[in-house]
User: Which sequence fits this backbone?
């Protein structure tokens, strides 16, 4: 065999090997882990699936998702992270700051896409937004800045507001920096601030009684999965005690709350699929900057306002993205 024949034969073998590897990779079904502290996340998962479909991924043929729900029990998160690692998922998608931190400490080298933690740098999730470092990337919103705007809008809705209670969950690592932001906003607006910790929904009735005795004129409920699950209870208690409340999730207002201002979480889960798509195609999380949402929505419930005896200023109504009658 002469040299030219040998090289041609070698090239054919290499080409066949390369094509075989590509065909094998193309036929792979990637395993995606989905972790949240919540009890379920159907709408979030729907948005994530839609995002993957937009990139040409087909459930069951090119990817499968294994969801893990901690049922609002923080202590279960490390165990669920370990289960996903044992399944050898190709990427782990995590919702909420607590789940993201649990994954950071327990997922080893598994790529992680965080969807919705606030203040990712402040809580130590990533080194910086531009250079996240390690194996974590995704999306994060500046909760401290968001709180400033929420306080401003609540003050605009209730012109006589002079004392506000901020409901926090001490188990949520993002609430400390956000509370600091609320203190700064209150000082700027000339409002006295009362910080109240709530560890479980069972404490809410007692907490509202305390706020009534404090004579607060309004409430800021920091975004938290536990508070989100108790949206109807919070709305009912706020109406009963005639306390205008500002929330960070639209779901609170559709459940009967007065007003919310926050990120569009459906959009965040759509964007999370972008990160997963890139990682499954070979990108490293450390090379993918953490994005911040640019879309925020203001939702106002006029039925709730009427029940509170509150007239929402027209200037605020004109800026609302949605008004619930």
Assistant:
């Amino acid at each position: 065999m002469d040299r030219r024949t040998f090289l041609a034969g070698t090239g054919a073998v290499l080409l066949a090997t390369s094509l075989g590897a590509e065909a094998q990779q193309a036929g792979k079904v990637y395993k995606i882990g989905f972790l949240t502290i919540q009890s379920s996340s159907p709408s979030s998962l729907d948005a994530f699936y839609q995002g993957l479909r937009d990139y040409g991924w087909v459930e069951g043929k090119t990817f499968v998702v294994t969801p893990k729900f901690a049922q609002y029990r923080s202590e279960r998160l490390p165990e669920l992270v370990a289960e996903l690692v044992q399944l050898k998922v190709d990427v782990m998608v995590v919702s909420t700051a607590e789940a993201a931190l649990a994954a950071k400490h327990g997922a080893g080298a598994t790529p992680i896409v965080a969807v919705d933690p606030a203040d990712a740098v402040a809580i130590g999730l990533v080194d910086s937004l531009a250079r996240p470092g390690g194996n974590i990337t995704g999306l994060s919103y500046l909760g401290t800045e968001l709180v400033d705007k929420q306080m401003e809008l609540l003050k605009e809705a209730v012109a006589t507001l002079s004392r506000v209670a901020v409901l926090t969950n001490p188990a949520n690592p993002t609430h400390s920096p956000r509370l600091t932001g609320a203190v700064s906003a209150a000082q700027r607006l000339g409002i006295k601030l009362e910080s109240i910790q709530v560890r479980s929904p069972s404490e809410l009735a007692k907490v509202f009684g305390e706020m009534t005795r404090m004579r607060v004129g309004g409430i800021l409920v920091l975004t938290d999965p536990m508070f989100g699950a108790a949206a109807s209870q919070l709305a009912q208690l706020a109406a009963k005690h005639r306390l205008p409340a500002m929330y960070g999730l639209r779901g609170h207002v559709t459940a009967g709350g007065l007003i919310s201002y926050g990120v569009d979480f459906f959009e965040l889960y759509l964007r999370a699929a972008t990160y997963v798509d890139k990682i499954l195609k070979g990108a490293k999380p450390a090379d993918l900057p953490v994005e911040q949402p640019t879309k925020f929505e203001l939702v106002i419930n006029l039925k709730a306002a009427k029940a509170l005896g509150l007239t929402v200023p027209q200037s605020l109504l004109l800026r609302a993205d949605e008004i619930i009658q």
